[in-house]
Amino acid sequence: MRVNEIFLHTLRKGLKPGHLMTDPADCWLYSYDNSRHHALPEAVVFARETREVQHIVQCCHDFEVPLVARGRGTGTPGGAVPVQGGVVLSLEKMDKTLEINFPDRYIKAEAGVLNQTIQNIAEKSGFFFVPDPGSSAYCTIGGNIGYNAGGPHAVKYGATREHVLGLTAVTGTGEIIHTGTYTTKGAVGYDLTRLLIGSEGTLAIITEAILKLTPLSDFKNTVQITYRDLASAMQAVIKIMSQPYLPSALEFLDESCLKLIQYSHSDAACMLLIDIDDERAKKNIIEASQQVGLIEIHFAENTAEMRRLWAARKALSPALRSLSSKKINEDVVVPVSRVPELLEGLKKLSEKYKIPIVNFGHIGNGNIHVNLLTDSADQCLDEIFNLVISLRGTLSGEHGIGIEKMPFIPRVIDPPTLALMKQIKKVFDPKSILNPGKIFPDEDKL
Amino acid sequence: MRVNEIFLHTLRKGLKPGHLMTDPADCWLYSYDNSRHHALPEAVVFARETREVQHIVQCCHDFEVPLVARGRGTGTPGGAVPVQGGVVLSLEKMDKTLEINFPDRYIKAEAGVLNQTIQNIAEKSGFFFVPDPGSSAYCTIGGNIGYNAGGPHAVKYGATREHVLGLTAVTGTGEIIHTGTYTTKGAVGYDLTRLLIGSEGTLAIITEAILKLTPLSDFKNTVQITYRDLASAMQAVIKIMSQPYLPSALEFLDESCLKLIQYSHSDAACMLLIDIDDERAKKNIIEASQQVGLIEIHFAENTAEMRRLWAARKALSPALRSLSSKKINEDVVVPVSRVPELLEGLKKLSEKYKIPIVNFGHIGNGNIHVNLLTDSADQCLDEIFNLVISLRGTLSGEHGIGIEKMPFIPRVIDPPTLALMKQIKKVFDPKSILNPGKIFPDEDKL
What we know:
Two copies of one chain form a homodimer.
Chain A: H1 5-13, E1 20-21, H2 24-27, E2 43-46, H3 50-63, E3 67-70, E4 87-90, E5 97-101, E6 106-110, H4 115-124, E7 127-128, H5 141-146, H6 154-157, E8 164-171, E9 176-180, H7 192-196, E10 204-212, E11 214-215, E12 221-227, H8 230-240, E13 249-254, H9 255-260, E14 270-276, H10 279-289, E15 294-299, H11 303-323, E16 328-330, H12 339-353, E17 357-362, E18 367-372, H13 378-390, H14 409-412, H15 415-428
Parallel strand pairs in A: 2-4, 3-4
Antiparallel strand pairs in A: 1-2, 5-6, 6-10, 7-11, 8-9, 8-10, 12-14, 12-15, 13-14, 13-17, 16-18, 17-18
């Protein structure tokens, strides 16, 4: 069954007036995300609390209507695009902070609260919430959790998976579940919290989360290091990652990126942008950086300069649009020691397919944002993913699968493991109404 | 069906000679663990590789025979006790280290490798594996993963859940699955790694693991702080946990513990034993410790003294046996700010039920080892768990549920969430052969 008048009537009954839209012009705004895809939903609804989400799921379950939950649509692999139509549920009005508890180091918040809102609250008391994707000013914590978002600080502190204590969620049958604890430790039953983290809205709709806070260090510095050649930079990265005091960010920018940010040294082949929040790291990192191709180590002189250096890095992704109207943005990850082989291989593929490839990203984790400046590169992408897999890497470090990387899933997850995931999907969502057509390439066979 | 000659014949075919034992005298050695429970298995088998584990599971699946995997039987809640008979699979012969990769900070090892073996390998290159339960010299990493083991370092670095990258495991239908990645980041498909961590052998039998390594700090110190009253110690703990530089261990010992370790100050009500692996923490911790009831702050003068201080803490659990031949050992956890209420409540319950209660443990996580010096305390335990739940805590921080805490599970996990867990169990193990009679109080209804 699809969206019809009886369905809409039933749906409307449990919602606040104005919280159901069916006009295509209104719905259009919820048809796309930060991928290149769009698909028009038949209805868009807003919820203000878990009970309303439950009502919406129950309606969609009863009428077998696809339901796609979304935050602010900042995801890149198309996870929030309602490819099978149906209803889009925007959680943007669930934006309440429910509890702030600094002694126990957590904030409980609704899924629609912005990442930046949490950062602002935390910072005032000397804490931060570790996940800080490029879109942090605008993305929601529900989205961060749904896609296991990372960001530069993951190199030292881990991704979203390591920073959520518990969740409230509504399964595909409309059951409200509570996972996890208010404590940092817990060994009671199965870890459904982590199962939902990164499940891309296909198992349950996350409505509330208990977010773990991390104290801010009172030391902070940013250092920019440039090299004449890639090999020297890579030696430095591996050495930095082998000593005990991790940088709080370790980013890589290739030659094309340096042109984009108008870096002045013409013989620079690449740059490392490093944040240090532990003074002990400073000496070791400087030492590790001393490689033959080193051009310059530059420490930011003050907070304003730190911000300026990071602003350039953060502007890279939008700036790439100036080089090419179309780009394919991958976020593959390989073990750190294999990054040189990855970059070497990417260079060859760029030449072979005559597609400019620009690379930057979280090199300390081996998580490289590979940008193909083209709108179509099927065969090249195919080879990139095979290269990544041959280096013991995986398809995505922090963006997720969505629709973009769906066809490649069977290359990294073997058939019995993938079959289990599909069966778990069926347990949570037996009618496959939650974000259908995502993650699994053959979902019609579910 | 049960263990019979045809079953044993089939089982034997896939095993090395001598790797199947059925003599009750031999089986007896695999009938118990570190809980007070035992139950005789009908057969004990040993596997040397994942394929053999697969053969064993397939046999038990085909004949519907219960199968309990075990490491070295150091668990306290009875998780390794074959309460429904059947086969015990000991993984002790799967003790190979498969890959040591320091640049990428992981060790891949078979499930039967001892925690201490990993620590020894890691330490030589300046790393450690964070989980360090009291039994680390003897427990296996398979057991650590099965129960999400913690230990003193969890306060700063997290428990097992945060330190495993990927797993190889055999499900209850005999399928070999591979979860996770070789990388520290990954956002591809459902997080089956974390789902298996803490699942107590009820979903799949873990055969290999990729363990994340953490660099050892080159600074280390141990400090012992004593207080005249509990309130002062608690104020110090909360203050220590509110400043940015966490201690790498923050342990609590109550008055009874001080008598056991023969601490000399007669007016001491409790002690904090703190490890610091970041010099910046030192000043803040000393400052936070300055409470009215402070008796003494004593820093270890050298490595030998550090070891001596920790040896006393580690000896506590066995030393308790000298006070009472029987004890019930719980490992409840509450948010740190609620620990004073927990300890106050425990004191009242101790008086009400006239049961001596000795408390020590990982207070920085709110994870207290509550020792009831008696062999029967049903009503008192009942009230303890209700107290813990009223303080937003949970039943276990690091020991797990096993059979001991099974009846209390419905108090901390609501019916829809528990129902989902049971359905997940059915996906992995449709015939309920893997460690039956654990975690879920009404498993016959599965």
